[in-house]
Amino acid sequence: MSTENNLLSKKGFTSNLGAIMAAAGGSIGLGNIWRFPYTVGANGGGAFIIVYLIFVVLLGVPLVMSELMLGRRSGKNAVGTFRALAPKHRSWQLVGLIGILAAFLIYSFYSVVFGWTLNFTGQAFTGSILNQDEAQIFAFFAHPYFPLIGLAVALSLTAAVVVAGVQKGIEKCTKILMPVLFVIILLLCLRAVTLPDASKGLSFIFKPDFSKLTSKAILNALGQSMFSLSIGMCALITYGSYIRKEDNLFASSLWIAGADTAIAILAGIAIFPAVFSFGFSPAEGPSLVYVVLPKVFNSMPFGHFFSILFFLLLSIAALTSTILLLEILVMWAVEELKMKRWVATIAVSTVIFIIGALCSLSFGPLKEYTIFGDTLFDFFDKLTATYMMPFGALCISLFIGWYYPKNEIIDEFSNKGTIKTGYLKIFYFLMRYIVPVALLIVLLTGILGL
Ligand code: PFF
Fold first, then answer.
1. Top-level CATH class of 2-448?
2. Which residue puts its alpha carbon closest to atom 12 of ligand 1?
């Protein structure tokens, strides 16, 4: 099969640990530490988290498994995967194309937030962040060109890693950054739970109040789980194509989904007790970590030190995810448009800088230009996480559950019959019935505004 040749000629991850670190790094990002806390805050706390966890177990894990499996089977990018695995039905390639488009849109607004984060990290080091008031911070977001400097640095950092390749760039970098990220978040959690009245914040996340659960909150929980696990847009197909044939895909998927979920919960534990302890509101929206947290750090003993740790954490999390976002696009450009890797990296980064700049300006000069009532930034965020990713995931579940031959799936998960695949029955049942039906219901409810 040409698929095998393709894999042999491609330099993938050198170890199972390297693959897990890279994919977990791609999943753990601003979504866990910036988006998860404010989404939990805006959707009522504990009950939202329970729905989120249900989505992770029932939909997230099988979808992570599916994407990694499809990528490893084909050894190709998002579009090439569907062309290789469904040669007679070319329309499946649209699923890959939607994924590529989603990666473009996400990378555009995500790199803006990464840029802010780098700026805040610099200010945390100098200590100036502690004394900024809200107006100054919003003035920075709305500034016509200051945030663009951070955006350019964010894109350049990411490009420097991606251009070095999968082994020397992505694997090496994530293997160093992920353990650092884990240690930092544990330190921040320790700090938060030892603050006075920390229990208020903890009960906000751990004591569910189901009366606060709306259908919108359920849709948001689905979108958050898709965004956080980076599923439904063929991101993990991209990394899956670099995974070694002898690695256990089921175990790897559990590690990736488990690490992502653990970091989201730990981020909640690091943030909410601190927010409640100093009497701030958890429902601040996207500005929660940028506006509320600096004030929290200002009031807390050793706040300067912890502010540095927090923004470093956010920068690391953002970088390992932008690496994945750029790799999706670069791999597609290299394989489909036959570009050289370095040319593709520069070309994609330049296009993203332009769209990203528009997203950034939508906080200031372009604020009045809205699409369906949202600024460009909010529109991209909502369109991708709430609609494109669940839709992509629905297509992938139909592909796996109803289209792609079951024996091929078994062959890939069992590494050609060499490892046991007892769990495959549950996986198959979920992908055939539960995942598509759940996605359809939640998507329709959201679209029809029920
Ligand atoms: N999962 C990332 C996060 O939680 O921040 C966001 C993301 C990265 C989504 C890469 C999609 C993707 F392809």
1. mainly alpha
2. 230
Gyration radius of the chain's alpha carbons: 21
Sorted by where each begins, the domain ranges of the chain are 2-448
Cα–Cα distance, 410 to 421 (Å, whole number): 8
pTM over the 0.90 mark: yes
DSSP assigned state of 90: G
Q: Which residue has the higher pLDDT, 9 or 38?
A: 38
What pLDDT was estimated at residue 300?
A: 87
Burial 125-146 (b: 16+ CB within 10 A, else e): eeeebbebeeeebeebbbbeeb
393 alpha carbon to ligand 1 midpoint, in Å? 14
Residues with CB under 6 A from ligand 1: 26-27, 29-32, 103, 106, 227-228, 230, 233, 235, 321, 324-325, 328
- 3-state secondary structure at position 370: strand
pLDDT digits (tens, 9 = 90+) for 51-106: 999 999 999 999 999 999 999 999 999 999 999 999 999 999 999 999 999 999 99
Ligand 1 atom having least distance to the Cα of 32:
4
